[in-house]
Amino acid sequence: MTLPTPHEFGAVDARGILSAPQVTDDKYSRGVVGFVTGSKEYPGAAVLGVNAACRTGVGLVRYVGPRSVGKLVLQRRPEVVLGPGRTQAWVVGSGISALNRTEATADSIRFAFDSDVPIVLDAGALDFVTELAGSPRVIMTPHIAELSRLMIFLTGRATEWSTDMIAADPLAAAGRVADELGVVVSLKGHVTHIAAPVTGDVRTVFQVTSPTTWLATAGTGDVLAGMMGSIVATTGPMSHAELARCAATAVYLHGRAANLASAGGPIAALDVSEEIPSVIREVLTA
Predict the structure, then answer these.
(1) Which one of 45, 53, 223, 271 has the minimum C-beta count within 10 Å?
(2) Structural domain that includes position 31
């Protein structure tokens, strides 16, 4: 199926996904997101993702991971609950190496899968996508190099899935992977391409162009994954198309927050998180 021209996702679209808490809401009805992220080698990824989720408006955050990483998470966000429990979404893989995963980490990732709620698959959990292929509740968030490695691993077709081939037409690559694996693909870059699997004759595709190139710095992908998990958790059960809208909303807010934090100069990942509430307020009150 030929991919349609992608819709440039913007503030009006994001407003259709975001919502402010109502007077009847509590922390549970507002949404709970769980994280299986971070490792002894990359503990900061957990801190960045959890912090971003809290700043995006979710009601409660749970963290499952190494005890040493959990302590760092609590130092930054003391409101986080350590350990598994009821959630409306999970974020898994940020700050985890697929080559050095422990059995405990793999078990925690599968626990998240078994919870039957939407999953944001990032970084060191992308290879688990085969266990969830065809699921209407998965968003995977690779950049071009990660997508190349994953698809070469899954298909053995190195030329077809080289970084050069993907970069030549990232929208087509995102669409093909979405169809082959049956999940929503958010292919990250200065222009991020989001594609959902074809449903009937309908293809949902979005693109989001970052307003700043200063986002190309360590940890901003972890922030994005946390934002995405928060938005999915607060939105509720959804189709592939609705998941794609949630993913695009997170990418749009991420770029706007980075632009505010930058003001034309360098930024660090935590700087992006601190501007998220301002951007959400801007979208909701425009």
Answers:
(1) 271
(2) 7-285
The answer as to whether 242 is a domain residue is: yes
Residue 109 pLDDT grade (very low, low, confident, very high; cuts 50, 70, 90): very high
Phi/psi of residue 156, nearest 5 degrees: 75, 5
The answer to whether the predicted template modeling score (pTM) of the entire model surpasses 0.85 is yes
User: What CATH number did the domain enclosing 162 receive?
Assistant: 3.40.1190.20
Asked whether residue 56 is domain-assigned, the answer is yes
Residues 6 or more apart from 57 whose CB is under 8 A from it?
Answer: 18, 21, 30, 230, 234, 277, 280
218 pLDDT more than 90:
yes
Distance (Å) of CA 83 to CA 56, 75, 234: 21, 16, 20
DSSP string over the chain: -PPPPPEE--HHHHHTT--PPPTT--TTTT-EEEEE---SS-THHHHHHHHHHHHHT-SEEEE-S-HHHHHHHHHH-TTPEES----SEEEE-TT--SSS--HHHHHHHHHHHHT-S-EEE-GGGGGGGGGSTT-TTEEE--BHHHHHHHHHHHH--TTTT-HHHHHHSHHHHHHHHHHHHTSEEEEBSSEEEEE---BTTB--EEEEE-S-GGG-STTHHHHHHHHHHHHHHHH-S--HHHHHHHHHHHHHHHHHHHHHHHTTS---HHHHHHTHHHHHHHHHH-
- Dihedral-angle region of residue 262 (phi above 0 means left; psi in -120 to 50 means alpha; beta otherwise): alpha
Would you say residue 217 lies in a domain? yes
Does any domain span residue 106? yes
pLDDT digits (tens, 9 = 90+) for 158-198: 999 999 999 999 999 999 999 999 999 999 999 999 999 98
Confidence of residue 1 (pLDDT cuts 50, 70, 90): low
